[in-house]
Known about the structure:
It is a single chain. This protein is an alpha/beta fold. It has one domain (about 55-180): Rossmann fold (3-Layer(aba) Sandwich), CATH 3.40.50. The protein is built from six helices and four strands. The chain has helices spanning about 5-25, 30-45, 90-100, 110-120, 130-140, 165-180, and strands at about 55-60, 100-105, 120-125, 145-150. A four-stranded parallel β-sheet has the order 2-1-3-4, with helices on both faces. The model has no long low-confidence stretch (mean pLDDT about 95). Bound molecules: iron/sulfur cluster. Iron/sulfur cluster binds near residues 65, 80 and 81. It holds the Pfam family DUF116. Keywords: Membrane, Transmembrane, Transmembrane helix. This is DUF116 domain-containing protein.
Amino acid sequence: MKPWIHFLRGFVLKVLYPVLMLVGAFLKSKKADFQAYIVRLNNLLVMRDSFYPKKILLLLPHCIQNSKCDVRLTFDVYKCRRCGKCKIKDLIELAETYHISIAIATGGTIARKVVKEVKPDAIVAVACERDLSSGIVDTYPIPVIGILNERPFGPCIDTTVCLKSVEDAIKWFINRQEKQQ
Ligand code: SF4
């Protein structure tokens, strides 16, 4: 890990983020933009860093599961029947292809629990601006590439994500692994 990146990420996540959230408390219409800015800035810094992750975790929000699906995935995403009605099927296939861990979190507390249990060296996280930015702050110094979800039906229901962006992020970390070998 490059010390100056470590320092800059710390500054962005522990100083700039709370300041922007304070400003966002007054400028509510700008809060999501500030959170997205923190996610972009963090991604930029992570992708300039040098580290060699052994264990990669793909962390997904619960709202990406089809709202009519009755399978409980929180503790075991592999219970998915892979019917293809939501992107969970494709995301599991990505995790299998690249031999990485995958989990679904219903909120910040579960996400922290998953990270504590899996102990990843790097995380590809999908979520909304709020959960992604706060999750990246919570898991610092673990390198996280954050990908914003898409919300065609509004927030927190039947959300989706660009699979290519997720795959590119996984490949970026895998590439780091290979550089070590
Ligand atoms: S792909 Fe999996 S999670 Fe999505 S609706 Fe089908 S069974 Fe449920």
